[in-house]
Amino acid sequence: MFRKLILISSVALIVAACSKPAAEISIIPVPQSVILKSGSFKVPGSVFSYDATTMDAMGKGHILDFASAVTAVTGKPSPVKESLSNKGFSFAVDPTLDPEEYAISISSKSVKVRASQGVGFLYAIQTLKQMLPTAFFEGKTANSEKWVLPAVEIQDKPRFAYRGMHMDPCRHFFDVDEVKKYLDVMALHKLNRLHWHLTEDQGWRIEIKKYPKLTEVGAYRDQTVVGKNFDPFVGDGVRYGGYYTQEQIKEVVAYAANLGITVIPEVDLPGHMIAAVASYPYLGCTGKQFKVWERWGVADEVLCPGKETTFEFLEGVLEEVMELFPSEYIHIGGDECPKTYWKTCPHCQKKIKELGLKSDDKHSAEDYLQNYVTERVQSFINAHGRKIIGWDEILEGNLAKGATVMSWRGVAGGIEAAKNGFDAIMTPNSYMYFDYFQSNELDKEPLGIGGYLPIDTVYSYEPYKGIPEEARHHILGVQANLWTEYIASNEHLEYNLLPRLDALSEVQWCDPEKKDFERFKKSLERMCKIYDILGYTYSKQVFGEAGFPGHEGRPD
Hints:
The protein is an alpha/beta fold and 556 residues long. 33% of the residues lie in helices and 18% in strands. It contains 16 helices and 21 strands. It has helices at residues 2-19, 57-74, 118-131, 176-188, 213-216, 246-258, 274-279, 308-324, 346-355, 365-383, 412-419, 429-432, 455-459, 490-497, 500-509, 517-534, and strands spanning 33-42, 48-50, 80-81, 88-93, 102-106, 110-115, 148-156, 162-167, 193-197, 199-200, 203-204, 220-221, 225-230, 233-235, 240-241, 262-269, 329-333, 387-391, 404-407, 423-426, 475-480. It has an 8-stranded parallel barrel with strand order 8-9-16-17-18-19-20-21, surrounded by 5 helices. Strands 1-7-5-6-4-2-3 form a 7-stranded mixed sheet. A two-stranded antiparallel sheet has the order 10-11. α2 (57-74) packs parallel to α3 and α4 packs parallel to α6. The termini are far apart.
């Protein structure tokens, strides 16, 4: 009897040990609610099911792709049914959930996913992918892996509606394949806005059929400054450029949309426009021929707001831009616009008098002239059912209601905007400028614009800090910016992006109490294994290893 009791007790201990909840799962961004349970679900050969009468095309596409990928990695077919089943993977439309919300319930018998729209199912699938062995991302059969999912209850939705990442192909150009790769890693982290900076002094990157010289002339510069040799100037003597055709832009926009990402185009005005003025000299104050800029910085040569032909040009460009991009928002820049030429330009001074603009103790008449440009362009865009975003300089003077402010010079612009009733997106350079160095061992870093922004600083950002509680609804979300003056290769672009993008995603997605940097670092180790499989270049500074992988010192 005693031996029998010992045997029963031993069996009970073994069963308990085998059925205890799994260790904490590694997902970035971490879901809002995770309840681990006992047991696991065996994935190979599982049926995938959904209700074809309620599932949208986006959701169906991602379910089919996921089922196909599971078949490939497990080596056992996972058939798909167009009616819901209680076994295997089931994807049920639940209209009570928010558009980006999802729920996952995993037991030993089933994986039940609920969402209201395709993007919710996409995010649920991204979470499931991260819960599987990293070999999933190799896309080929791996019989040695344990293809199981832990039993768990997940309820998840984002903290902020706007979760953006910026890309600058103007200073250095990145082709469509690299843009798609950028979008892929954004989607893995549940970001939903790509801010695509398409016009600049150093290159115009979007085909505008009404103004063909913008790409014939404006998309190419004769050479590029070498390093930081500005005075005296030293150039490399190599013609450089490129642009996206309208068909390529449509391709990128569609690709992004399938990943739940809206592409927001930026046409920066009235400054940062030398490439446009070089293409059409009448757009400048002097009418002189300029070259597409070969150096970095802020140029004095800007658009002339005193001429009606300037607004005819802007409206023609923006009409084509809005045809290509269905985004609610169009970014119009508005930053770093010197008024040097406007002060002596007869056209600008005449316009200032016509409008009755006068200098005061806060702003010059020329500053108010830029307000006129912003308001006029805003009215045109609003008339087409769209809204504008501008950098925080648009707050200087009188900003028309309905504009959204992108706060980049620290957080002050966002705080001021929210207090004054304007929506804002927080992109402060002190936390969200990914062109800054991520290591202070500069001898091991590639050449960069300067600044120091390690991943823990990114992670520490709290978007509501300094925002009065009654104004917090004006903070639409958070974005990081990645300018490319010193970033010329795909590898360098990815290196500056990753893994800071992981930290960004938790700032955007997670409620503050869910953030934990030590937990995040553990999850990041697994994510970096995924990057290795997918062929992304990334910094290992967070793990104590500084430097650009595979390069000795500065590759530039």
